[in-house]
Amino acid sequence: MAWILVVVAGLLEVGWALGLKASAGFTRPLPSALTVLAMVASFYLLAQAMKVLPVGTAYAVWVGIGAIGTVLMGILIYGDSASPLRLLSLVLILAGLVGLKLAG
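Predicted structure:
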């Protein structure tokens, strides 16, 4: 159950990272409110998961999901670069996360 919380928290991290852009520096009320709500929910779920999971692994997986998801959504939504080096870097992050999970 704790790993499900980390995954959902990571997905919410993607949401709030994208929300930061959509909020235009917190000048747009609805995107700003949704961004803050996603931030609070993400941190809360991560904190709950850390009650039973190793802090380093849980945090790294949360950040990794957020980073990978945000880059992929940036490519899909905002037309960010999908260069081979960027995609390889995402694969390396994913490999590191799998390694941390397997080593734990």
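Summary: The longest helix spans residues 55-78.
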